[in-house]
What does this fold into?
Amino acid sequence: MKTIEEFLSYLYSLDVQLWLEGDRIRCNAPEEVLTDALNAELRLRKTEIAEFLRQVEIATKGYVTEIQSVSRDGNLPLSFAQQRLWFLEQLQSGGSTYNIPTAVRLTGSLDIPVLEQSLNEIIRRHEVLRTQFPTVDGHPVVQVRDDVKIYIPVIDLQALNPIAQDDEVRSLFIQEASKPFDLAKDILLRVKLLRLDRDEYVVLFTMHHIIFDGWSMEILVRELGSLYTAFANHQPPTLPELGIQYLDFAAWQRQYLQGEILEKQIAYWGKKLGGILPILQLPTDFPRGRVQTFAGAIASFSLPNNLSQGILSLAKATGITPFIILLTAYNILLHRYTGQTDLLVGTPVANRHRREIEGLIGFFVNTLVVRTNISGNISFRELLQQVRATTYEAYNHQDIPL
It folds into this structure.
């Protein structure tokens, strides 16, 4: 049986959140994660979990743990992740590398004024969508505007045949995705509506990553559906008001990540990624460019059903997540291609391990570096255990932005 630290780290990797309310353990988890076996182990180890959480509360007493609303007066700080992106934007001014473009297809009767009303309500609810980042004395600050209201331009493509429509949608999508934002002056959210037929549309969203991430898209789509339904039926919205905003998280983060907590996290990553890091030498048929171009692409494929089932069976037998099994296999593949034994793989994490920020739109996602050593006559299962331990260590030190 895993130690309590290993078990809680495993739950943490599945985005299962546990906390104490008085003497009761509360749990929040994504759908379908809490299997019968996992629920049974949670019940079995209830006392052990409660005692561990209680000790954590005692150990962290005195640190800033609760995110609270802060004053909006004066120069307001960026989060550490936002500060990183702002700095990168200064290095490559006028670029679109950190744009997040998304296309959403809508079918059925669409009331465009109601769609606008719904989007503007979301912008009102989430002040990060009304945020700009001007520079004061050489440093970026947060400026929240209260007068933001968007109007959705509609481009009618009904006169085109289906093939021409697809080409035009793709072209407009690329145009929007490639158009840069001015972080100091622009509203960092753009919306366009493409009309394909009487009851068929494509909505183009383009957001800058400094105010948005993948989790935020789920919130945006969910709230848009709820608000549109309410407004279309002339009913008041049922979404509860947000207790805090992203700006409150940014202020909390700067208070929390200091002193001993900051030193421990920096010490971990300094040790893990110290020295001269290896560059992956893939045997490509062209030399590595001297200047990074960001001209990437996506290659999609499906695993055969028998392979997928085999991975799930191995996960069940070892108590290791399918993600870590696939990450281990990926490291082996890189080792076979390159012959290198010291491998670094970046992996994104939602970084939303606090209940207060689950429903907030904003830039929380972080990248963790998992370093794997494939040397000696190591077996697959031994490597699997190494990757799991390293990944869980990284999860436990994920507060420091890469």
DSSP finds twelve helices and twelve strands in the chain.
